[in-house]
Amino acid sequence: MIEVIDAERCTSCDICVNVCPTNVFDKTDGIPVIARQSDCQTCFLCELYCPEDALYVAPHADTPCPTDVVALRETAALGSYRRAVGWTDQTRDLRGIDRSYLLFGH
Amino acid sequence: MTTNDRRAEQRPVPGGSVEFDADVLVIGGGPAGTWAAVSAAERGARVVLADKGFCGTSGATAAAGTGVWYVDPDPALREAAMANREKLGGHLQDRRWMARVLDQTYQDGNRLAAWGYPYPVDDSGKSQRNSLQGPEYMRLMRKRTKQASVTILDHSTALELLVDDDGAVAGASGVRRQKHDRWTVRAKAVVIATGGCAFLSKTLGSNVLTGDGYLMAAEVGAEFSSMEFSNAYAISPAFGSVTKTLFYGWATFSYEDGSVVPGAASKGGRSAIARALLQGPVYARLDKADGNVQRDMRASQPNFFLPFDRTGIDPFSERFPVTLRLEGTVRGTGGLRIVDDSCATSVPGLYAAGDAATRELICGGFTGGGSHNAAWAMSSGTWAGRGAADYARQLGPARQRRLASAGTVAFRSRSNRPLEPAVLARAVQDEVYPYELNYFRHASRLDGALARLDAAWVDVSAADAASKDDLLRARESAAMLATSRWMYRSARARNESRGMHRRDDYPDQDDRQRHYVTSGGLDEVWTAVRPHADASYAEAAE
Ligand SMILES: Cc1cc2nc3c(=O)[nH]c(=O)nc-3n(C[C@H](O)[C@H](O)[C@H](O)COP(=O)(O)OP(=O)(O)OC[C@H]3O[C@@H](n4cnc5c(N)ncnc54)[C@H](O)[C@@H]3O)c2cc1C
Ligand code: SF4
Ligand code: SF4
């Protein structure tokens, strides 16, 4: 489930509020809040759309998993999914490297 | 084809709601809905698309990504593609529909290339088009939908259909959950593309899929087909949501003590995993993947690895606990019955596409790992959009129709006893999640579940209208309840095992039951038998 909005990175663009399919976030005067964490379906899509890599979705679907943002910044986790699908300037070549055709029919 | 510059008209109405006049309303903005919206607009229709979430991220495809039944138009390849799944599907497929879906999917897949989808190129220089990355595909579909002048309403859950005096469907209304107001679209035709029902099981991307379209369609009298094929379960790490199963083809499954679960496999041995899970935890390790395969896996499905990378598990060398999450009709094959080539339902003005519609025509009673659902979503979406646009045109200029709301449960003021959505959702889950009820079915257990579910329906229909804040959840849980009853009634009507439908009391396939089970109804749920196309042809030839 969604665990972190990194206040240092977030620019309050509200994109996450718009794109979350289960309406987990609410707008505020400043940075959005995680208003309905238990509605999160752990789809990781907000991470892909956040231009600042300010969001972190823990992979645990059924239980919250409090995550320390300071420790998180030390890892490469923030923005890792966005980089992996090629949605950053530095990684755009990765958009076209799907090798599924080699794996189907196994 | 010309791009349509005609937009749906927004009507001025007092605060607290928005209203549009359109030719076609598409409910749901996954692949089926977006293909429907684009094809209706290309036919000259003014189109509104309403999605519960955000068109582009919402639904099973956006989060998961899909293999696609895209097969080059070489007769031998096409023949093999059709033949190789007939047995799995219990011979309920229809060859004519399989051929048309292969043709349409090929065209749609090529259009995606023309629109800029970054298909990979193999070592021989060939563009490979049988897989789509979910976020990439659906971001592109949103863009094309907008470019086709479709009005997109995000976070706009449809709650009920509108009908005219003759009972033809004439629009829908719902809530804009971020604006806390209502929307209404008056339309000459409606496409239901709300996906399947996964019962809030947190299977990847599917918590928006609660069977809402089924409930709305049933309230105007629509029929369902193949609802017994609704017990798809998918493998995920026990703690996680990523129910992507392809890579478990390289897994070894073991018990707590490390010994191998006999017969367990992702394909053709998933029931052995379910039986083992009834006894205790089951673990997997993808130890059959060599270095090259591991590299291709990472390149192909980055989201598969998120649960592992974020918990420090190396899935190739370490064992991790797995579970099976119910996907219901999302990777089942049941849904609204399609009555003609334009994907019309049994109700005038109402069309269905994608997982909301039955996929029996191309999958029979089994799907998963075959890419048929994705092919069906784009093909049926394309046809339903065209069909709805043509129907709207033939209806002529907007007549002044008197429209009535068709919603029942959670809308009617009754006994002042409130409908408690969370309690109801939990009660339905308790009947549909357990492997011993739904994976492995048996008449006596189905009857027990049905008695409880029917009682819940009586209760819910007598409950008071939901409050404004509860309405969305109330309708979702009522839709789950209705879906579970068509599922189990249909399962009860098929006294054999076929496709994904397994009956402990009838473990074999019975040649005399090579037919479809149709169903419908809310207060009284009914089922009936409809012959398979081959049987009807045989009869006609006699
Ligand atoms: C993990 C996973 C992996 C899969 N892999 C494959 C694969 O490899 N190959 C394959 O062929 N298929 C696969 N499938 C199935 C495939 O994803 C679906 O068949 C496909 O997404 C169906 O498209 P759809 O447009 O009908 O539904 P969806 O993509 O689910 O979209 C439905 C849309 O309707 C909206 N909606 C729901 N209710 C309402 C309402 N009341 N009002 C307004 N909008 C509403 C939702 O928000 C959603 O956007 C997979 C499914 C899952 C879950
Ligand atoms: S998308 Fe990212 S930057 Fe924008 S508001 Fe959300 S967290 Fe902040
Ligand atoms: S993971 Fe998905 S459901 Fe959860 S907050 Fe992000 S976008 Fe929303």
Automatic annotation (TrEMBL), chain A:
Gene Ontology MF term list: 4 iron, 4 sulfur cluster binding; metal ion binding
Highest rank taxon of the organism: Bacteria
Lineage of the organism: Bacteria, Pseudomonadati, Pseudomonadota, Alphaproteobacteria, Hyphomicrobiales
Protein's name in the database: Ferredoxin family protein
Sorted UniProt keywords: 4Fe-4S, Iron, Iron-sulfur, Metal-binding
SUPFAM superfamilies cross-referenced by the UniProt entry: 4Fe-4S ferredoxins
Boundaries of every 4Fe-4S ferredoxin-type domain copy: 1-30, 31-60
From TrEMBL, chain B:
Biological-process GO terms, alphabetical: anaerobic respiration
Active-site residues from the entry: R270 (proton acceptor)
Keywords annotated in UniProt: Flavoprotein, Oxidoreductase
MF (Gene Ontology): electron transfer activity; flavin adenine dinucleotide binding; succinate dehydrogenase activity
Pfam family, one: FAD_binding_2
Fumarate reductase/succinate dehydrogenase flavoprotein-like C-terminal domain boundaries: 439-518
GO CC aspect terms: plasma membrane
Superkingdom assignment: Bacteria
Domain FAD-dependent oxidoreductase 2 FAD-binding stretches: 23-229
InterPro entries: FAD-dep_OxRdtase_2_FAD-bd, FAD/NAD-bd_sf, Fum_R/Succ_DH_flav-like_C_sf, Fum_Rdtase/Succ_DH_flav-like_C, SdhA/FrdA/AprA
The protein, known as: FAD-binding protein
Organism of origin: Bradyrhizobium uaiense
